[in-house]
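[Automated response] Your request has been received and processed.

Submitted sequence:
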Amino acid sequence: MINSPQKDYYIDYYGVNLFNYAMQNKKRSKSIDVIIITVILTLLAACFVISKPIFANSDVEIIKQSDTGKEIYLEKNFKENIKNKYAGAYINFPSAGIAHIKKTKYINSKPIKINIVELNTNVNPNLKIKPQIASFKLNAKTTVRKIAQKENSLAAINGSFFKPQTGVPLGALMINKEVMTGPIYNRVGIAIFEENNQTSFKMLNIDFDISAITPNFKIKIDNINQPRMLSTHLLMYTSLWGKISPPPPQNGYNMVIRDKKPIKISANPVEISEGDIVLQGSKEIISKLGKENSILTNIKLQDEIKDAVHIIGAGPYLVKNSEVYVDYKEQKLQAISGKNPRSAVGFKKDGTFIIVTIDGREQKSVGMTLFELAKFMKSIGCEYAMNFDGGSSSAMYVKGSIVNDAVNKEGIAVSNALVINEIDSSNIKISSLN
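Generated structure:
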């Protein structure tokens, strides 16, 4: 408070009554401060009601936003690179990050018609690649187009080798982490990984460690859901094989395991109910296992592929570490080394994935040898590539149609295919911000 002597001092020194002026300004300042503070508090209260603090736990689902500008830039570059890489070829783009190319190549003045699908999962993370069987069981066949349409796929190619009589895939096959069949001769396969909405690949010789474990011992199982190769092998069959197991080897037995307990031993084929496991082997091994109260079967993948979501095997290698590498003798595939229709897959570590079909056995397209195919896969940039089942099985599907000149225009009925799908990203959500 300013007293009376102070008031007189202001009047005498300045010649004006600054006391009243100062007091009025002070009242104004206080009024303004009160108004500003009231407005700020009101705004803060409104914000608190409308939205919880950003660091608080929240069950509110928030749609994941994408960087549209970046996506457009990547897609534009992808298209420009494809057009430059395959100059003069027929090119179309079925969706973002995926291209279909048709071209003719000449080797020794002979024409070869080629179909290529090239995609990049970094340009379009919604593109997903997986193997798919013809039906719910392994012993079935249908065309690549029907497999693709059933999966609503953008593109597809025929997959691994298979037993023509039954349709059972010959070689390693795992879909959505479920091992369906085991490898043969440790042939090459491609493993597909999906983590944080990113897809990556590894190509290597596939080997599964399969075993039967009891309280008293552990014994190696030689394969799962594959035809018998040696009479001494112990094989495992699941309900994916079909309703009936194969007959056991001479002087051997089938044993049905249900809920980890042996329930039946027979010298004949046995019924496989859903969830059952059948072990098939020599009389000595099956009799020993049949005395156990509990039998657990276990499948262990190699460390390099233990986190894979899908695996499909065929062979041989075509490109390894960016170099031509055709190991058809080691993989016991000498019979397919001549000029034939071909199917192949390859990839680069930058997210590029490529599928290829080669038309053959006709004047307008003579086909390729494995070495010619390997050189071609390297020429289009594959750092790793492998051969799939070829010949009359070769078929490529793109957005509704078979695009290569396959047998009977549709290709023959096959056991499985490798399909490319595009998921709906509009449903990707984050459930919490904490």
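Summary generated for your ticket: Residues 1-28, 47-66, 427-434 have pLDDT under 50 and may be disordered. The longest strand covers residues 110-120.
If you did not submit this request, please reply to this message.
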